[in-house]
Amino acid sequence: MMDFKIDTNFYTVSQVRHLTEHAFVVQVPRRNFKFTAGQHLVLGMKDDYHTREYSIYSGENEEVLEVLVKEVEEGYLSPRLKQVKEGDSLEIHGPFGHFGIEEKKRDTHKHVFIASGSGIAPFRSMVKTYPELDYQLIHGVRTIDEGYERENYSTDRYVLCTSRDDNGDFKGRVTAYLHEQEFDKNTQFYLCGNSQMIFDVLELLKNKGFGRDSVSAEVYF
Amino acid sequence: MKRVSFKTLGCRLNQYETDSMVSEFHKAGYEIVDFGQPADICVVNTCTVTNQSDHKSRNIISQAASKNPGAMVVVTGCMADNYKQELESRDKVTYVVDNSRKASILPLIAAHNTGEILHPDQLPQNVFDYGAVSKSLHTRSAIKIQDGCDNFCTFCIIPKVRGRAVSRPIDEILNNVKQTLENGFKEIVVTGVNIGRYNYEGLTFIDVVKQILAIPGDFRVRISSLEPDGFSSDFFDLFEHPKLAPHLHLCLQSGSEKTLLQMRRMYNLDQYQEMVRQLRNKYPNFNISTDIIVGFPDESEEDFQHTLDAVASAQFSHVHTFKYSVRKGTRAERMENQIPEPIKTIRSEQVRLLSEENRLNYMRTFIGKEQRVLIEKVREDFVEGYGEHYLPVQIANSQLKKNTFVLVKITGITGEGEKLMMIGEPI
Known about the structure:
By secondary structure, chain A is an alpha/beta fold. Chain A has helices at about 75-80, 120-130, 175-180, 195-205; strands at about 10, 15-20, 25-30, 40-45, 50-55, 65-70, 90-95, 110-115, 135-140, 160, 170, 185-195, 215-220.
């Protein structure tokens, strides 16, 4: 008898939400894909060697699995993903990574999420997964339209820092905003975004007395 | 009797997998010959971690084919995964077998010899189906406990060619260790791609090492290359056990915080240095060696100076220095500010010189102290082996036998550069 195996790594796109000219959310049914909020997956087009890592944008218990993609205009995969339509097939592997909220600190600590650009993705997953979480989300972008789906966060917990736009909650980079803030000692910081932002924020937090035990970081580029 | 030769490139894990294959072929009645001797079958276990590894692997494959006209040439290892189509299109390569099917090369060849031609993709996939090593040119045998990596460091191709992290069942590991010891090995090396992340049914890396150490017998355990993340004080306590060698190869890669972030490493310099401090506070002579990548994209002179400072401060006994090389499909391939090769060469040389100075200073601290040496090579007038700290020792006595332990007092140092060696006198 022929021995064959069904490849379970292929997922059919159920929705694509275009948030800005260059940012969009790709959604597939979650099926049996189990993950912890903060983890990432590896995504590729069917029959294409090229893959990329994306943080998971949706919550652990949602019926869908989503990633937030920022198009890199000279890039290989993201412009192709932008053309993806409902019914197309994608290859997904994972979950991977150790970025996430420490279970023992979830209810005892304040959580400050600091993101640049599409680095907001793992934090949306955390907020969707833990609706009771005591968090503040500081999101650094260039213009207000990059405050991706900010209606997902209550206004008293979300701070949009816009470096090239006066219409955010704070005009300037996240580092400038953080510089002015005071934080409780039992605050846990989570950083996700480009390496320069993370480098600068780590220095800033160190100067405020928060060492690496109080900080988790996931580097994007 | 069919003659088979093997050539291994790259890491200790590859070496273990070759050693295991050698043992299986030997048991199956094949004659094992040195690579370069005429053979009917040549197995090349390749590496693809750098451009240089690719280059060497290609050269070896060409040599295997040109020196053995008509021989079966089997290419496996990480390059076989990374350049599968290219290798399959080569006329002189008989089979290209990916890493996950490497353990089935013997049945593939046995089938071929009886006229049954299988496509390697028909072979079963099992990254742990390796028996204990019985025949090897080495006196220490690796034990594979884990394969693959989920860290996705931006420079590294390994997650693509070795796949995601998987851990070997503990019973298989312990059986493998017991069998290896029964086969006469006195030293085993716990190995894998990212062994610190071992996780099998709730058991951690620390649990595995503890269970291996609890096996009775006069043998020594080493831990191979380790990623410096996520270790508790329990881990440091392991080294109180007399069977566990006081040496770790802790991969630092860079001393620059900025570069470590760009590499997407799982630790920062402070955390790394804290591990070194804890180990040396608890065990003053503890041997720490490392890997350093020089010329990573955007690495400035200041970043590189941080690396030199870190190397000097940690007093590594050995630094394995790699010049960064672009790996297709990795994030670093797409980074800006790639560093020119001449600058990488200069930086690599600076690290090498500093490393040699460190090594000499470290060896000097052993003069007058004892080492328990496992004899590896017997020459006409002397023997050579490694002490528990993984430093080479030469002993002026040819009566000592290979694969035996001898307690010596270190009296001096001989050689220079990479060939530094301690001199020991049996006690």
